[in-house]
Structure formats: structure tokens, C-alpha cells
Amino acid sequence: MRGPQTTPVVQNVFNEDGTVYGIIAKVRRALRAAGADTEYLNQYVQKSMLGDYDHLLPTAMEYVTIA
User: Fold this and answer.
1) H-helix or E-strand spanning residue 15
2) Whole-model pTM above 0.90?
3) Other CB atoms within 10 Å distance of the CB of residue 1
4) How far, in Å, CA of 34 to CA of 18, rounded?
5) 3, part of any domain
6) 4 assigned to some structural domain
7) Lesser CB count within 10 Å: N end or C end of the chain?
8) In the beta sheet, which residues pair with residue 9?
């Protein structure tokens, strides 16, 4: 499993699509662009979907910087 080479920064995470799936997709795209492999991306998605919306945001912040 290979994570991103740098910590991606995600901007406007709520502006375009503030749904759970929209946020997961935006973070996933940022991780992929930063060099994360499929296994790492799948780990992020699975961990994000373990809880509710209140669980999603802290999980996203473990993987990316939200600006």
C-alpha cells in the first residue's frame, strides 16, 4: 500500500457537493492526484463509510488538509 507522496490540500469541500459521497469523492481524487495507490484509496473510502457524517469529516482530515 502506497500513500500520497505529499499531504494533499482539498479546498471548498462543502461548496460544490456537501453530501457524504461528494466529500469522499473529492478527497479520493486529491489522494489519487498526490500518488496514492488503489489499496490506500480503498482504505480511506472504507474508513470514511464506517460512521455517520460526523465521523466522515475527522476521517477526511486524517488523510488530507482541508482548506
Assistant:
1) none
2) no
3) 10
4) 22
5) no
6) no
7) C
8) 65
What residue numbers bound the domain in which 50 lies?
Answer: 9-66
Could you tell me if 1 and 36 are in contact, meaning their C-beta atoms sit under 8 angstroms apart?
no
**pLDDT tens digits for 6-59?**
888 887 777 666 788 889 999 999 999 999 999 999 999 999 999 898 999 999
2 inside domain: no
Q: Say what the pLDDT of residue 4 is.
A: 84
Contacts of 52 (CB under 8 A, 6+ apart): none
Domain total of the chain: 1
Terminal alpha carbon distance of the chain = 26
Query: How far is it, in rounded angstroms, from Cα 30 to Cα 24?
Result: 10
Quick one: cell of 13? Answer: 469541500
CA pair distance 53, 50, nearest whole angstrom: 10
For the beta carbon of residue 65, count every other beta carbon within 10 angstroms.
13
